[in-house]
Design goal:
Protein name: MFS transporter
Keywords: Cell membrane, Membrane, Transmembrane, Transmembrane helix, Transport
Number of helices: 15
InterPro entries: MFS, MFS_dom, MFS_trans_sf
GO molecular function: transmembrane transporter activity
Shape: globular
Largest sheet: none
CATH topology of the largest domain: Growth Hormone, Chain: A
Mean pLDDT: 84
Low-confidence stretches: none
CATH superfamily of the largest domain: MFS general substrate transporter like domains
Subcellular location: Cell membrane
Number of strands: 0
Number of domains: 2
Strand content: under 5%
Length: about 400
């Protein structure tokens, strides 16, 4: 691979832009759907069911998505999934425009949307080490995730503004256009992916078992995955579903919802920019410290009944969360055998996203039973903090990990 900066690496730039637009479109879809369910369907419990429908198939198919990412061209997988997701959003727009978008349709279409995401995530993540030099992997991750967080800022703002003036139907239309446009930048000839690394012929089941065995044998990977599970179940997953409920409870509008969602993204963006320029060698300790900080802020989030203060705390949650994921993510990419990269990344993605639906289901169940949403967040955060402190005390291998890059 020629020595070149990331900004002159054309395949990386196209991946950069495609990922950015995909996240804008997805975040718009996510916010538009949450507001549609809360305001039009009028049911917080229905919101949890919809989110579960989107995320559960991603759990079930994520490991298989990693197998495909090792067997086939990652660019082909990404282009295909983004294109089909765009078509699904067009269908949702048409149904809503005809006043035919029901709870059942959202569950079915959300199911397929989540299934596709199980294939695109591992493919995109495992593509990065193939198109950049090894010492640039952390910078590339920071750039893509940083732009992604900017997408999470821009997406809710666009969605809130569009819904404020054009309603939910317009929100779905704009998100569909953006996702379809993202597929353009993921067109395989633009990304120029090299040959497939995994040329060993064996059954998909053996491929899957090999991936899990590889992860199980690494204390670093196992501890990092436990950290991601703790972050996403006890902090991010629970707070994600709590935010629209809190906005509705305190008399907010779509703009208030967009402010909080945007603040979360801005926090991630700022910390990602810092990580991109600061060399972090003690990545294990940094990741644990980030988890502890996130959960402490989440405890404060659970005690504030003011939407404006919650917006500030959402910024801090986003800021601290990035210090959990990027250091671990980058080290996993640097140290993993390229032949098995897709499967390892799929397991990491599973830890990052797979426990969200359990958090959604738990929070939804507790809310439906009459528990106060802020009490729920407080309980989740305290349990998560106890786990994080235990990892800090017992996870010596992970805590002492240092990177050579």
């Amino acid at each position: 691979m020629e020595q070149q900066s990331l900004i002159r690496n054309r395949p990386f730039i196209f991946l950069f832009l495609g990922s950015f637009l995909a996240i804008i479109g997805f975040s718009m879809f996510f916010m538009t759907t949450t507001w549609f369910v809360i305001s039009d369907l009028g049911s917080a419990s229905s919101l949890g069911i919809i989110l579960i429908a989107v995320t559960v198939p991603r759990i079930l198919m994520m490991a298989f998505g990693g197998v495909l990412a090792d067997k086939f061209k990652k660019t082909t997988i990404m282009f295909s999934t983004s294109s089909i997701q765009g078509v699904l959003l067009v269908i949702i727009f048409l149904l809503n425009n005809a006043n035919q978008l029901t709870f059942g349709y959202l569950i079915i279409l959300g199911f397929f949307f989540g299934t596709l995401d199980a294939f695109s995530g591992p493919a995109g993540t495992s593509l990065i080490p193939k198109i950049v030099q090894k010492h640039q992997i952390k910078q590339a991750n920071a750039a893509i995730q940083g732009l992604g967080q900017l997408g999470f800022v821009i997406g809710p703002i666009i969605a809130g503004s569009v819904m404020e003036f054009g309603g939910v139907t317009a929100g779905y239309l704009v998100s569909a256009i953006i996702v379809l446009f993202s597929a353009f930048f993921m067109f395989p000839p633009f990304l120029k992916e090299g040959p497939v690394d995994n040329t060993i012929k064996q059954t998909p089941l053996k491929d899957l078992i090999e991936g899990f065995s590889y992860v199980k044998a690494s204390k670093f990977l196992m501890t990092g995955i436990l950290i991601l599970i703790t972050l996403n179940f006890f902090a991010f997953g629970a707070i994600s579903i709590a935010i629209p409920i809190l906005v509705e409870t305190y008399g907010g509008t779509p703009i208030n919802l967009s402010y909080i969602e945007a603040a979360l993204g801005v926090g991630m963006l700022v910390s990602t920019a810092i990580i991109g320029v600061v060399k972090i060698r003690r990545r294990g300790f940094t990741s644990i410290a980030g988890l502890i900080a996130t959960l402490i802020v989440a405890i404060a989030f659970s005690q504030i009944p003011n939407l404006y203060i919650l917006t500030t705390l959402a910024f801090l949650i986003g800021f601290t969360m990035t210090f959990v994921s990027i250091p671990f993510f980058t080290s996993a990419q640097e140290d993993t055998d390229p032949r098995i990269m897709g499967r390892v990344m799929s397991i990491v993605f599973l830890a990052m996203n797979g426990f969200d639906p359990l958090a959604y289901a738990s929070v939804t169940l507790l809310v439906s039973r009459g528990f106060d949403i802020q009490l729920i967040i407080l309980s989740f955060s305290i349990v998560g903090l106890m786990i994080a402190l235990a990892i800090l005390w017992l996870g010596q291998t992970y805590r002492n990990y240092k990177s050579n890059y």
